[in-house]
Specification:
4-stranded antiparallel sheet; S-adenosyl-L-methionine-dependent methyltransferases; about 240 residues; globular; Rossmann fold; alpha/beta; 2 domains
Length: about 240
């Protein structure tokens, strides 16, 4: 989970590395409408600072977000006045609403600790869907596609402030541990450094598909989308237990 410092610069850094939130949101909307042409509402789970929600908003009548990190949720609320952003956990959230579509983007589903939690989250998603509703999950890497020891870097400059990010990823059991260091520099404040460590599960394709099925969702894996990680898309076939 991201803290207050990272929430301030998270989106700028990823955009500087080429992440295109708008095109990703448009692709998700296409996949949803291909399965539910009349889709009118969307819940973005683990919505972060609201970067995808901003682009979902013009194409759905109603959008809402759910975010565990309070600083991230607050950033999303400031960004999107009038959009409800709930602070909550994807494993056990309960909202007084149902949606045509539920999304979970940018590998955030990998913050679940084990297949049991993955199944719990998918059941929660299904409980908040309208009949025939769609779930779209941008997964984290599979065990066989994760690059052990991978180093990633990125820098960007905006409004007189320069940001840098360096990360190192290693495999630890059935998860990836990512150590991330940030530098933030400007003329007035000089250079500031902070770091975070994230543990992200390496679920297999079979584990994702089993969780969809257990939640009463059909499941299709679309290879090659979203930075090569692909996309899982499911449709509610039976009410979630």
């Amino acid at each position: 989970m991201y803290g207050a410092e990272a929430s301030e610069i998270y989106e700028l850094l990823h955009q500087g590395r080429g992440k295109d939130y708008q095109s990703e949101a448009q692709e998700i909307a296409r996949q949803v409408r291909a399965r539910m042409p009349g889709a009118v509402s969307l819940l973005d789970v683990a919505c972060g600072t609201g970067a995808h929600l901003e682009h979902f908003r013009p194409v759905f009548d109603r959008v809402e977000g759910l975010e565990l990190s309070a600083p991230m949720a607050e950033s999303a609320r400031r960004r999107l006045p009038g959009v409800t952003v709930h602070t909550g956990d994807m494993r056990d959230f309960s909202l007084d609403a149902s949606f045509s579509a539920i999304t979970c983007m940018f590998g955030s589903i990998g913050y679940l600790a084990d297949p049991g939690e993955l199944e719990s989250a998918l059941r929660r998603f299904a409980r908040h869907l309208r009949p025939g509703g769609v779930v779209a999950i941008d997964p984290w890497w599979f065990p066989e596609t994760f690059l052990d020891g991978h180093v990633a870097t990125g820098t960007t400059t905006e409004d007189g402030r320069t940001l840098a990010r360096v990360s190192h990823s290693v495999r630890v059991g059935d998860a990836s541990r990512i150590e991330v260091h940030y530098l933030v520099a400007d003329a007035a404040s000089g250079v500031r450094h902070f770091s975070e460590t994230h543990l992200i599960s390496l679920f297999s394709r079979r584990q994702y598909e089993a969780a969809f099925t257990a939640a009463g969702l059909s499941v299709e894996y679309l290879d090659g989308l979203h930075n090569g990680r692909g996309l899982f898309v499911g449709v509610l076939e039976t009410p979630a237990a």
